[in-house]
Amino acid sequence: MKFPIQKVKQAGDKPFYFEGDVDISSLEEAKNDIRKIAPVSVSGQAEMKGDELEVSMSIEGDMILPCARTLVDVPFVFHIQAEEYFNLSPYYEMEDDSEVHPLPGEVLDLTPYIKENVLLEVPFRVFAENPEDTPPQEGDGWEVVEEKPQSEEKVDPRLAKLESLLDDKEK
User: Fold this and answer.
1) Strands, DSSP E only, in the chain?
2) pLDDT by residue (tens digit) across 81-99?
3) Domains in the chain: boundaries
């Protein structure tokens, strides 16, 4: 989602409103738990305050995450309220812990900040609604192998003599 800074400046004292859908499906390929994510709806406003640009936005969408118990797909709906701050001054130098981003150029691209806010919203773990859901039993080049239960522990015949000595000692 991009828009020129000039539009925000033209709004004057009034906020500049924006709205649209943003495709952030590249998050599916990153090393995280997001299996699928639909384009997110973003709406918000941008307002100039001197050399600073304040952007308030609402991000809504849904993603598919793996269940923590069974690994089945679990839909997760999210709604994020985010605020980002930018400085337009060419003399601004970003500090280490600063929440204000430098903005070189005349176009503001909110897509990286939308992705960052969505990644921060991904829960640590989710659980499927239906506990009877079973995990997939096979996939591309793999399948689940059941481990056979071990019958009684068999004693190595070479150590059977030693075991009889231990039994005598306990008596």
Assistant:
1) 2-4, 16-22, 36-37, 40-49, 52-66, 73-87, 100-102, 107-109, 138-139, 142-143
2) 999 988 877 666 666 566 7
3) 2-133
